[in-house]
């Protein structure tokens, strides 16, 4: 199975959006450089950010999001973002009225099912889980292999937390990748696994 990655742009105080679900300057780094990040030419980043982000984005097979993100983006008009092949949406509500059932989106009721479905679709490619409430639930369920953060130099003060509702401690390994871009610091942490005891085996 592919690696499960919790990913998102985040403020230095740990938020992925403000109280009105707006990212504000968190994504400034995506348009502040001179190297095109995608074919559309809208996203332009520093060379350091491109060399870090583009290979990661190319490795993503499936993205898992919550219904909030799906609704805020209007379901990306049925086209998964950033060239991803499929999106799994965690929700207890049905798809919107008029939703095209042929669109590469799957709607499931919980995070465990979402990761299982996503891994089946992704094969050996990366399963990306959007940071926020659903991402925090996936971490709490012990299903995240690594955490990737694009840290923007801004303090939002309040809003939507990167790790959502996580309340208990979760150990991460030392960062094994640190890349300084323009208006962003890219970090990667492996999730530390608790050592097995004799009773666990």
TrEMBL record:
<protein>
    <submittedName>
        <fullName>Dihydrofolate reductase</fullName>
    </submittedName>
</protein>
<dbReference type="Pfam" id="PF01872">
    <property type="entry name" value="RibD_C"/>
</dbReference>
<dbReference type="GO" id="GO:0008703">
    <property type="term" value="F:5-amino-6-(5-phosphoribosylamino)uracil reductase activity"/>
</dbReference>
<dbReference type="InterPro" id="IPR024072">
    <property type="entry name" value="DHFR-like_dom_sf"/>
</dbReference>
<dbReference type="GO" id="GO:0009231">
    <property type="term" value="P:riboflavin biosynthetic process"/>
</dbReference>
<feature type="domain" description="Bacterial bifunctional deaminase-reductase C-terminal">
    <location>
        <begin position="112"/>
        <end position="169"/>
    </location>
</feature>
<dbReference type="InterPro" id="IPR002734">
    <property type="entry name" value="RibDG_C"/>
</dbReference>
